[in-house]
């Protein structure tokens, strides 16, 4: 995408274009989708009425196909994009063929609302992330490369990109200039990406647009991954510096931990996160908590604006879950200074036993892009099993 575009311009009316090639779902594909949806329903406790026609060994009559299609469409209404995100990124039950089946199903829909668009967007990025080599450089992931990777789904794509798609490159450039996850989450960059997708309207489904948005989502994943690892390394370096100064606990209420959180416990948690992030894009990553933990460490070191903010008693981050907020409010009544110096071993052990890390990760949907939202019904963080 090399053409220029005035800032703030929007896509024009849909132009004639070759449609994305669709295929009628055969019975084997329907059965594959049925098994995926059934597993999804079990995992997220979604009410799913059985469809005997699909469960039968051979029921590929027109009537059975019609009933199966109705069942799939009904399940589509119940399964949200965050269900797909969490399931596909933490489960090995769906391979590339399963993703292809799901994408053919959604791309063939004639009624397309925002939910369908977001599912297609996520599934395309997920598919390309699986087929792309891990050593692929960002500069090599151009439109031609991504289009080739998506060819089994979209066919051969005309790579002449409309000017309005240039907005995606500008958002990527802004994201790459970010120095921290906090800067990315609160710099208005993510909102620009959402806006570009929303403004595309029906143009989003043009093959070249699907390729461009897939490329955008894939490269944004990488930006998140790099910034998350950078934040983790900064936290670990800060904890080492504090330990060298003889500090053993710090005030981490803003990150939903205790007012006297042991550094040794924080180090163990950060190391477990680092292992989880090796998967590059695991579901349920505690974005807000990671940002707030880095701010807490900076505060303990007397660096940045966080140091001033943490002097306010009982401060709780805006995205803190109610239960964690109550715990933080209770801790504020007996809060000790932000940094606690060394103390006798017995006291340290008692403090460590009492200061259990919170299991809740309240990430605001406004803070993270759709790809990084956390399921509202799954606040508890669990490391990826394979990691």
Enumerate how many helices there are, as a single number.
17
Mean pLDDT across all amino acids: 75
Radius of gyration over alpha carbons?
Answer: 24 Å
Assess the beta-strand content as a share of residues: under 5%
Count of distinct strands:
3
Structural class: mainly alpha
Low-confidence stretches: 1-8, 12-19, 279-285, 306-387
Helix-strand string: HHHHHHHHHHHHEEHHHHEH
Major sheet: size, sense and barrel closure?
Answer: 3 strands, antiparallel
- Helical amount: 40-55%
Categorize the overall geometry: globular
Strand order of the largest sheet: 2-1-3
**What distance separates the N and C termini?**
36 Å
Topology:
Elements: H1 27-44, H2 52-55, H3 62-78, H4 81-90, H5 96-107, H6 114-131, H7 143-149, H8 151-154, H9 166-176, H10 181-186, H11 189-200, H12 207-244, E1 247-250, E2 261-262, H13 263-277, H14 287-300, H15 306-309, H16 322-332, E3 339-341, H17 345-354
Antiparallel strand pairs: 1-2, 1-3
Helix pairs in contact: 1-3, 4-6, 5-6, 6-12, 9-11, 9-12, 12-13, 12-14
Short characterization:
The chain has helices spanning 27-44, 52-55, 62-78, 81-90, 96-107, 114-131, 143-149, 151-154, 166-176, 181-186, 189-200, 207-244, 263-277, 287-300, 306-309, 322-332, 345-354, and strands spanning 247-250, 261-262, 339-341.
Account of the 3D structure:
Helix content is 55%, strand content 2%. The radius of gyration is 24 Å and the shape is globular. It has 17 helices and 3 strands. It has helices at residues 27-44, 52-55, 62-78, 81-90, 96-107, 114-131, 143-149, 151-154, 166-176, 181-186, 189-200, 207-244, 263-277, 287-300, 306-309, 322-332, 345-354, and strands at residues 247-250, 261-262, 339-341. Among the domains are: 19-114 and 122-127, no CATH class; 225-372, no CATH class. The chain has a 3-stranded antiparallel sheet, sandwiched between helices. It has 387 residues and is mainly α. The longest helix is centred in the middle third of the chain and has 38 residues, at 207-244. It starts with 26 loop residues before the first helix and ends in a 33-residue tail after the last helix.
């Amino acid at each position: 995408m090399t053409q220029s575009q005035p800032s703030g311009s929007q896509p024009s009316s849909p132009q004639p274009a070759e449609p994305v090639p669709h295929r009628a779902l055969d019975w084997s594909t329907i059965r594959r989708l049925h098994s995926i949806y059934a597993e999804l329903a079990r995992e997220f406790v979604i009410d799913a009425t059985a469809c005997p026609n699909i469960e039968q060994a051979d029921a590929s009559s027109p009537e059975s196909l019609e009933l199966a299609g109705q069942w799939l469409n009904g399940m589509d209404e119940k399964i949200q994009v965050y269900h797909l995100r969490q399931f596909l990124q933490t489960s090995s039950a769906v391979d590339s063929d399963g993703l292809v089946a799901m994408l053919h199903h959604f791309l063939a829909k004639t009624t397309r609302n925002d939910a369908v668009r977001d599912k297609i967007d996520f599934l395309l990025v997920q598919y390309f992330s699986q087929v792309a080599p891990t050593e692929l450089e960002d500069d090599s992931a151009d439109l031609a490369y991504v289009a080739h990777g998506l060819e089994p789904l979209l066919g051969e794509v005309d790579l002449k990109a409309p000017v309005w798609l240039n907005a995606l490159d500008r958002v990527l450039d802004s994201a790459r200039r970010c120095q921290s996850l906090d800067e990315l989450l609160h710099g208005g960059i993510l909102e620009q990406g959402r806006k570009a997708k929303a403004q595309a309207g029906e143009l989003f489904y043009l093959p070249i647009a699907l390729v461009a948005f897939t490329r955008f989502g894939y490269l944004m994943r990488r930006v998140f991954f790099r910034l998350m690892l950078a934040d983790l390394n900064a936290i670990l370096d800060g904890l080492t510096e504090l330990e060298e100064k003889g500090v053993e606990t710090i005030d981490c209420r803003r990150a939903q931990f205790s007012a006297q959180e042991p550094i040794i416990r924080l180090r163990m948690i950060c190391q477990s996160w680092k292992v989880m992030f090796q998967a590059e894009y695991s579901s349920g990553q505690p974005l807000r908590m990671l940002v707030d933990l880095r701010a807490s460490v900076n505060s303990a070191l007397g660096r940045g604006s966080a140091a001033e903010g943490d002097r306010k008693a009982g401060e709780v981050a805006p995205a803190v879950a109610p239960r964690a907020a109550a715990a933080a409010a209770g801790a504020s009544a007996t809060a000790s200074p932000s940094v606690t110096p060394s103390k006798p071993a017995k006291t340290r052990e008692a403090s460590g036993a009492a200061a259990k890390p919170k299991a809740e990760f309240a990430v605001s949907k406004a803070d993270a892009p759709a790809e990084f939202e956390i399921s509202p019904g799954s606040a508890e963080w669990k490391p990826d099993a394979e990691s």
